[in-house]
Protein: Oligopeptide:H+ symporter
Organism: Streptomyces carpinensis
Amino acid sequence: MASSLTKDSVQPGTPGSEKTFFGHPRGLATLFMTEMWERFSYYGMRALLPLYLVAPAGLHLSAASATAIYSVYLSLVYLLALPGGWVADRMLGPRKTVAAAGTIIMLGHLTLALPWSGSFFAGLGLVAIGSGLLKANISTMVGHLYKGTDDPRRDGGFTIFYIGINLGAFAAPLVIGTVGENVNWHIGFALAALGMALGLGQFLLGSRHLDARSDVVPTPLSAQEKTAMLRKSALWAAVAVVFYAIVGFSGVYTLNWLLVPITIAGLLIPVLVIARIKRDKDLDRTEQSKMTAYIWFFVAAAVFWMIYDQGGSTVSLFAEKSAENSVFGWGFPVSWYQSVNPVMIMAFAPVFAWLWVALARRGKEPSTAVKFAMGLLLVGASFFLFLAPLAIADGGHKAAALWLVAIYFVQTVGELTLSPVGLSVTTKMAPAKYASQMMGVWFLAVTAGDATTGLLSIAGVDLNKTGIVALEAVLAVVAGVAVWMYRKKVKALMGDVR
């Protein structure tokens, strides 16, 4: 990346003489590389996770247990983004929080690399905690690099940053997945740790280029608040230790004693957070109306992510067992399917950005509600498409790899109609009192969707069965039709937001 840095041929100290990254502040290079390596480690481990859980040389669990663990892990990552933002706002500031997050993620991957099941689940917990801390804050630091929301470079800066995310996500399954599946699972997890170490080292070396606002703790805890927080944290930690000690020594402990509470929390906390904001009497009538509209988008997003994130669990486990993972006679590891989405995102995101602008100029751009309906219809269509390879496998044959590529393609198109739009509308509709918290609320939609998948798997539902896949597809389509039918009502509730 050093070759992309430029320096104007003027005297040092004059405006415009500072180094830039594709015309953007130098700190963007630091955050770009940090996020790229963090996503490399995260998506590499994620691609291996369900396969390792079912592999005879791994934990050799059932597909239902693997899906439950995978889904609960994803829901926990997004659930922890909310307290991750709180830690930066009240205790450490964004820069120190991200440095701590990178360290925790690296230690988590190293723990995953140890050949013991107990340490494996501890490693998953560490990676989830670190990812929650990082996810909530690194994008905030990108925003700090620009002089307010009117800086004309701002949108372009986030676009470059988004490319870093997808570059890491694309490369990870090809490298970490190949080594994990073909050489050794634990070496694959160790490579994920190496990726995070590279990202952390780059962040620490380049943090001097970040904006001074990234070091600020916006609303620091008072001494009394710190004491109260430590007391409550110690109390709850003691309760958890005592409870699980009793369960463990009584001989009744199973993995569900851990998974079920996390899953229930993943379903209840989003509801409680939304309800608390909606009941807040400080919100005026306009803000209340916008929050009512936002509930529609939140529920729609939860349904979308419930199906979409099964691309890494249900669809991946099907590929491992029932697909012909080769193209023109050339075989490839199952984890490589997880590179399909990021490469398609990089290819089609600019097309969608151009399309919305072109339609807007003609006064024909779909409303936010219509875009959400399109996303739901497409993710539902992807699971209707999934019925074909399931039928082929039921007939005793291996399904062609292109069937699965087609599923990921349709899901990616759906993602592009819903996810960026959801991020945008969340910032636009946020009540002033909750402006800094609403992005965490958006992530809770992912938590709710993945927690639902986890709960179904814990209950013993086989998500690779034709009837269940068809039912999920119908649910998404019905939800999409409902959003479309009530689009005018939702639009009216949104007020001046478009």
Remarks:
- Residues 1-17 have pLDDT under 50 and may be disordered.
- The two ends are 37 Å apart (CA to CA).
- The chain has two domains: 19-207, 266-498.
